[in-house]
Design a protein that fits this description.
Blueprint: E1 2-3, E2 10-11, H1 15-22, H2 26-33, H3 41-54, H4 60-67, E3 73-77, H5 81-86, H6 88-102, E4 108-112, H7 116-130, E5 133-137, H8 145-151, E6 156-159, E7 170-174, H9 176-189, E8 195-199, H10 205-220, E9 230-232, H11 237-250, E10 256-259, H12 262-274, E11 284-286, H13 292-296, E12 303-305, H14 308-323, E13 330-333, E14 336-338
Parallel strand pairs: 3-4, 3-5, 5-6, 6-7, 7-13, 8-9, 8-10, 10-11
Antiparallel strand pairs: 1-2, 12-14
Helix pairs in contact: 1-2, 1-3, 6-14, 9-10, 11-12
Length: 343
């Protein structure tokens, strides 16, 4: 740091100090800080070296007054707060997005909007320009947040394809339908024929697509889709327990369950144990996500692996491109069957 004239007290280095150290103009330093446009590689390296040597830190408030940007991004979860702490997938996505943005020196703001009042307040905050863009997680159909932000011109990328919004909004998703197809085929390959499913919420893309994949494979295999074998959940462990209770009551000869999330699958395992059903001998169980819940289960859970690291990185990449002026984009990533002890 540079010494000031007041009693030797250190003051923070300024853009002028960086320019002097690098041997370039203040304007060149400013251009490097704002993306490096019209700057030679040699000058850019000199400025970056000077920043490291002086310890200069960008004054984000001052820069935002010039660029009109906040230099921050919002991570918006449209679920009740307790879901954020219960479901490990949200924390995995948050960590991945934080790390991907850190490479660009952009902070991530966590926003929870599980009630109507919270949604209105957060939407107002975002559209007032407090963030440059939004990473939207867990979008339910009928929730107006995505459409309102899109219509307000806010750069937005959803995790999962938003239902009913077509190409209006960028999204990054695992191939939910194909993953469900692979899991259902796996259960059939074990000789199981009374295969139930506990779906995700059917107002979310994951819930809809995973149920569709399950039904398609049964139909292709000549097995009639039985409504008694289909119960809905909300991705919570408790809904998995209750869903399994309903399945056993409706279909006593149940021999397999495809569960639309690992956390719900842990609830299914709890109910099966309580009912005296052995896993996998009596009932095979397959989950979805390959979250920490899959390894914490007893037995360990066969599941469909979502590439969460890639999903996070792609969400950030697409959002930054959109903030930079590019059009909306869609990215669909493959899932992978991970076989463990529950099948």
């Amino acid at each position: 740091m540079t010494m000031s004239n007041t009693g030797g007290r250190r003051r923070p280095p300024t853009i002028h100090d960086v320019a002097r150290e690098a041997g370039v103009s203040r304007g060149t330093v400013s251009r490097v800080l704002n993306g490096g446009h019209y700057v030679s590689p040699a000058a850019q390296e000199a400025v970056n070296a000077a920043i490291r040597k002086t310890g200069y830190v960008v004054n984000r408030h001052a820069r935002s007054l010039i660029t009109g940007r906040s230099d921050s991004v919002g991570f918006l979860l449209t679920e009740p707060q307790e879901k954020f702490f219960e479901d490990p997938n949200f924390n995995i996505l948050l960590r991945g997005c934080t790390q991907a943005l850190a490479a660009h020196d952009i902070p991530l703001l966590l926003m929870l909007a599980g009630t109507e009042d919270e949604r209105r307040r957060i939407t107002r905050y975002i559209t007032s320009g407090h963030v440059d863009g939004v990473l939207l997680v867990s979008s339910h159909s009928g929730n107006p947040v995505a459409e309102e932000l899109s219509e307000a011109g806010v750069p937005l990328v959803a995790c999962g394809k938003p239902i009913g919004l077509g190409s209006k909004i960028s999204y990054v998703a695992a191939d939910d339908r194909d993953g469900a197809r692979d899991m259902t085929r796996h259960l059939l390959s074990l000789g199981r024929r009374r295969i139930g499913t506990v779906t995700g919420p059917l107002d979310t893309p994951g819930g809809v697509e995973r149920l569709a994949g399950y039904k398609e494979v049964l139909a292709e295999s000549g097995i009639k889709v039985d409504d008694d074998l289909i119960v809905s959940g909300d991705y919570s462990r408790l809904s998995g327990e209750r869903g399994a209770e309903r399945l056993l009551a409706q279909v006593p000869d149940l021999d397999a369950v495809f569960v639309a999330s690992d956390l719900m699958a842990r609830g299914v395992l709890t109910t099966l144990e309580r009912a005296g059903r052995r896993v996998p001998e009596d009932v095979a169980v397959g989950g979805f996500d390959d979250s920490p819940a899959a390894l914490a289960s007893s037995p360990e859970l066969t599941t469909m692996r979502q590439p969460f690291d890639r999903i996070s990185a792609e969400m950030v990449r697409v959002l930054l491109a959109q903030i930079g002026g590019e059009d909306t984009a869609a990215v669909i990533l493959p899932t992978e069957l991970v076989k463990r002890e529950s099948t």
